[in-house]
Amino acid sequence: FRSHKTPTQNISKLNFKTMNDELYKNIQPICGLCQDEIITKQEYYNLPCEHLFHKNEKDCLENASIINWLKENNICPICKREIQL
Length: 85
Fold this sequence. Notes:
By secondary structure, the protein is α+β, with helices and mostly antiparallel strands. 16% of the residues lie in helices and 12% in strands.
């Protein structure tokens, strides 16, 4: 069993997207860290496991950041699936 306290490789390959009206209405997106909505025009990361996270720390509760998480962990904080980029 590998420890998840391993940095995710190739974090720079993780691209962000901008939430649009149609996607917002269809999936009602929630940030996996702060559990707040990702609203239209906010930028977000979509991990390979399909969990979403605010891109901008200021949009996320207590300035959380999925990038900071991935610098220390190689798993999704929601589903614990290993993140390979």
